[in-house]
Amino acid sequence: RFSNSYYLNMALHYRVAKETGITTATLTNWKQGKYTPKQDKLQKIADYFGVSLDYLMTGNTTEPVKEKAPE
Question: Please, what's the b/e burial string for 43-71 (b: 16 or more CB within 10 A of its CB; e: otherwise)?
Answer without folding.
Answer: ebbbeeeeeeeeebeeeeeeeeeeeeeee
